[in-house]
Each structure stands twice: as structure tokens, then as C-alpha cells.
Design brief:
- By secondary structure, the protein is an alpha+beta fold.
- The chain is 21% helix and 28% strand.
- It is built from ten helices and 27 strands.
- The strands form nine sheets. Strands 9-13-11-12-10 form a five-stranded antiparallel β-sheet. It has a five-stranded antiparallel β-sheet with strand order 14-20-17-18-16, covered by helices on one side. Strands 21-27-24-25-23 form a five-stranded antiparallel β-sheet, with helices on one face.
- Helix 1 runs parallel beside helix 3 and helix 4 packs antiparallel against helix 5.
């Protein structure tokens, strides 16, 4: 009987091509492609494609060639059905399908003529290059359809946009100020590379690096601006941008306080380049989160965000600009896209992150088994930098757990992170906000009690073991247990078990009892200088 294979799937691409090149003459294309897109929706989940397609009721074929998703001569042309807006698939969901299709095609190398040709053809169809080439050559009715195609497609091409951020705070100083029409100049918190001038009296546009320039009252080459967010405190070149303009130069002594509302800046999400914006996770992309507008550049996209009410950031590719109305907490790797948050950096808490027990450890509460969902909330698709930033933005965050795969736990346990569990690929970090001094370990040494190994700690006699003598916690090693004792001002010693049980004693250890070799008992002898 009839089979859906290489020949039939190429028919899908031919109809998609007709839709792209001659949209005015392809009214029936959507009717043909819509059932294919609707079927694909049922075969994708979380970026993964099912190994088989199904024969729907009323199908004109009786069987389907096996391993369709890995045979690019089938998958590639079938995926191109998604370039036509579907009446059966929500636009946000259709974008997810296109993203997954682009990733699947991009995962295949061009190492043979037949499948390799379809890797190339489906790539340029999905990412809009085929349409642009047709437009440039004046072919058919392609002119003017870019918004229809590139507004809903993605692919494997790349673009480059790098964003840095800085802020300025007001001080009193005397400077030579070059002024021009305020409406054409940049505000204190904005990049002034393009304008070369500043709106605020007393400020001059200085270059930081090739990607950013900011309005400042003064600038010392090679120095770091202490008002920059901590993650962006890199040296400034301080090259004057814009030179002289058709304007007046005056000497002015001013006291300027920049309002918080003017400190909004764009910051790259997980590097920004080749990242598409997402909500709570890398798969959270509801079309209710954003409004789509057509623009000519990323700068225009940013300006549209600034002018919009409550804009949280932008996603940009080609002429498509998404103005996000909800916080951008995650992103997804997608070639050619740029994702930027629009934030007030002053709302990020300053402070330092401290790794807990080294690499390969996950955060825990009071013990290695204490991993209640009440201790944290989870996002996915995060870099370590992005995970830390989310912690800085949340008042209750006491630290983060991050997995190299992008999982990010924001810890909000009031008692903090007190333990870890050894797990490959994880790191655990305590956050110490500015103004909160991390406990300083006491200097001293640990003295073995009767050789330590095979001994458990006791009070005045081998049977004196009241629970009030010690606090029980957990540690990944004896060294970790010792560090906890150094941090506790009243710790007199410790008992450690190889399972991770760590007793921190706060009464003097005067005796011991013989036990098995998994235990050890140690007195802490504090240095007089500490």
C-alpha cells in the first residue's frame, strides 16, 4: 500500500515552498499543511520527537517509513510544514515545535549527499534564508512576506549581540559639559555608544569597552566603576565618545541624584547570544507572556520595550521582537536569537557566594537527607551566573544549588544551607549579602581522643552522653565536620561517623567509649590568638 516516506514528505516541502514564495497564490497551502503541523504537535514533548509517526484516520497512506525523525530526507521536509501559521496549533506551541525541529535538524551532520541535502534545504527553509534569497532575487511574490515567515520560524544561523551594563550615581563635581538636544541623547543608565551624548547636565559619554559606553561625571582609564553591578565590574577605557557636537560647552557645578526609575538597563540572559527567552523553565513559552512587534534592529526592539508599560525584557531575531510582560527567569539555546532582561540593577542584592563542600555536592537542610520542597523553588535552563542572579533578586534567598544541565534551586530555608549530599554535576553555594559577615573560622587544632579512631565522645564518664551536650548535623567528610566546629563559637570538639553524622560538642569532652572504626572523637584546641 501507499507509504509516507521520502517522496511523500518532499510533497510537504513543495507546498511549504509555494506558501513562502507565492503567498497570494497559495490559499490552499494552509489547508494542506495544517493537518501535518497538528500531527507533529502530538509527536513532540520537551524538545524530543517520537520515534514513529501515526497513521491518522482518513489518511491517504497505509504505512510510514521507520525512524522518520532521524532520516533527514523525511524529517527535514516534514518539519517545513511548520513555517505556515497553523489554525490547529497555538502560536506559542507552534514556535516550540519549530524550535525543536531546528534543534533536531542542527544535530545532524552533512556527511552524505541525499540526507545531507535535506539538512541544508530544511535549515534554510526553517530559518528564513530561503525566503530572503528569493526576495533578494525578486522571485515570484516573495517580496513583503518576511514578517509572515521569519516571525514564526527559527533555525541554525547565528547572530552576534553582546550586552554589558552599568549604572551611575549622583555626586557633586565641576566638569566641562557638552550638551545637545536632550531628546537625541542617552539617559544616565543607557548605552550612549550610538548617541555620543548625555541628557543629564554634568554627564559625559565615556566608552567602557567595544560593547558599551555610559554617561558619567568623570572617568579614570583602567579603573573599575564601583557603582557597576558586581558581575560587570570590569575596567573602563574612558575614551570620550562623540567628541564635539553642534552645541554649547559650559562649566557647571551640579548635584545630580539619578532616580531609581532611570536606572533600568538591559542585561544578557545566560549570555544573551543564541538564547531565546523563556518563563520559569526552558520549555515555558506561552504566547501570553509577550507581544510581538516588527522592528528593523535590536536597538529599535529595546526602544519599544522602554516605551512599553511594565516591559520585562526582549527576545530578538531578524525583524521579530518579543516584548515580554512577565519576568524572564530562563532561556533556551536557539541559533540567531538574543534574549535580554530589562532590569533595575539597584534591586539586585550585593554580596558574595561561598561554595559549600566543593564541587560535586548538592545543597541540603539540617542533614544530607533534608531536601524538602519547602526549602527551595526550582527553575531550569539556567547558567550558574543566571541562577545566582535570581538569588540576588529574591530577598529570602540564602543560596543556590546548580546542576551543569541547567537546573537551579533557589534556597529560601530560614535556617540556611547546613548540609550537602555528594552528587556528581552539582554545586552548592551559600549567599552572604553585603552587611552580613560570614562566620570566621577559629584558629586551632584538633586533638585525637585516645587515638580518635574507633572512639565515641563522652562527658565525665564513658556512660555520660546526654543529648544536651551536642548538636547533630551532617558533613560530607571529617574535614567538613571540623570546619563546622571552627565556625561554632562554643564548639569544644566533635564526634564523626563515616555516614556523615557530625556531633558538635559544646561541653568539655572528658571521656570516651570504645566503638567501631566508623567513629572518631576529637577535641578542639583553640589558638590563643584567635
Amino acid at each position: 500500500g501507499a507509504e509516507y516516506g521520502a517522496e511523500a514528505s518532499r510533497g510537504v516541502w513543495r507546498v511549504a515552498l509555494d506558501f513562502l514564495l507565492f503567498p497570494g497564490e497559495a490559499a490552499s497551502a494552509a489547508g494542506f499543511l495544517d493537518p501535518v503541523a497538528a500531527h507533529l504537535e502530538t509527536r513532540e514533548s520537551g524538545g524530543n520527537w517520537a520515534q514513529t509517526l501515526r497513521v491518522d484516520a482518513g489518511c491517504l497512506v497505509e504505512s510510514i517509513h521507520p525512524s522518520w525523525s532521524w532520516n533527514m530526507f523525511m524529517a527535514g521536509p516534514t518539519f517545513t510544514s511548520l513555517v505556515c501559521p497553523s489554525n490547529s496549533v497555538a502560536s506559542g506551541r507552534q514556535q516550540e515545535l519549530i524550535d525543536a525541529a531546528g534543534a533536531q535538524v542542527a544535530s545532524k551532520a552533512i556527511d552524505d549527499y541525499y540526507s545531507g541535502s535535506w539538512v541544508a534545504i530544511s535549515t534554510i527553509t526553517l530559518n528564513g534564508d530561503l525566503l530572503r534569497a528569493a526576495q533578494n532575487s525578486g522571485l515570484g511574490g516573495a517580496t513583503g512576506t518576511t514578517g509572515t515567515t521569519t516571525g514564526s520560524t527559527t533555525g541554525t544561523t547565528t547572530g552576534t549581540t553582546t550586552v554589558s551594563t552599568t549604572t551611575s550615581s549622583g555626586t557633586t563635581t565641576t566638569v566641562a559639559t557638552t550638551t545637545t538636544s536632550a531628546g537625541l541623547c542617552s539617559r544616565t543608565s543607557e548605552d550612549c555608544l550610538a548617541t555620543g551624548c548625555c541628557q543629564d547636565v554634568g554627564y559625559t559619554c565615556y566608552e567602557k569597552d567595544q560593547y558599551w559606553a555610559g554617561c558619567r561625571q568623570s572617568c579614570q582609564p583602567g579603573e573599575v566603576n564601583p557603582t557597576d553591578p558586581i558581575e560587570y565590574r570590569t575596567p573602563w577605557s574612558c575614551t570620550l565618545i562623540g567628541g564635539t557636537t553642534a552645541s554649547t560647552t559650559t562649566m557647571a557645578t551640579t548635584t545630580t541624584t539619578t532616580p531609581m526609575s532611570f536606572q533600568m538597563v538591559f542585561e544578557a540572559v545566560d549570555g544573551g547570544q543564541d538564547r531565546a527567552c523563556r518563563g520559569d523553565s526552558s520549555t515555558d513559552n506561552s504566547d501570553t507572556y509577550y507581544t510581538v512587534v516588527s522592528v528593523t534592529s535590536i536597538e529599535e526592539c529595546k526602544e519599544r520595550c522602554k516605551a512599553a508599560e511594565n516591559c520585562q525584557g526582549v527576545e530578538f531575531k531578524g525583524s521579530r521582537c518579543e516584548l515580554w510582560k512577565r519576568p524572564i527567569l530562563a532561556s533556551k539555546s536557539l541559533g540567531g536569537y538574543t534574549c535580554l532582561r530589562y532590569v533595575d540593577p539597584n534591586k539586585l542584592r550585593a554580596g558574595e557566594f561561598e561554595m559549600v563542600d566543593g564541587e560535586g555536592h548538592a545543597c541540603r537542610g539540617a542533614t544530607p537527607a533534608d531536601n524538602s520542597n519547602n526549602c527551595f523553588h526550582v527553575t531550569t535552563g539556567q547558567s550558574l551566573e543566571g541562577c545566582r542572579r535570581l538569588c540576588r533578586s529574591e530577598a529570602k534567598c540564602v543560596g543556590v544549588e546548580h546542576h551543569e544541565g541547567g537546573r537551579c534551586e533557589i534556597w529560601i530555608r530560614p535556617e540556611g544551607i547546613q548540609a550537602t549530599q555528594a552528587l556528581p554535576g552539582y554545586t552548592c553555594w551559600r549567599f552572604w549579602p553585603d552587611g552580613v559577615t560570614p562566620p570566621k573560622p577559629r584558629e586551632g587544632s584538633f586533638e585525637a581522643v585516645d587515638g580518635a579512631v574507633g572512639r565515641v565522645c563522652r562527658g565525665s564518664s564513658p556512660s555520660d552522653n546526654l543529648p544536651s551536650y551536642f548538636n547533630v548535623t551532617s558533613a560530607s567528610s571529617l574535614d567538613s565536620c571540623e570546619n563546622l566546629c571552627r565556625l561554632a563559637s562554643d564548639c569544644t570538639g566533635l564526634e564523626f561517623h563515616s555516614s556523615g553524622r557530625c556531633e558538635l560538642w559544646h561541653r568539655s569532652i572528658e571521656s570516651f567509649r570504645v566503638s567501631n572504626a566508623d567513629y572518631s572523637c576529637w577535641r578542639f584546641v583553640q589558638s590563643l590568638a584567635s
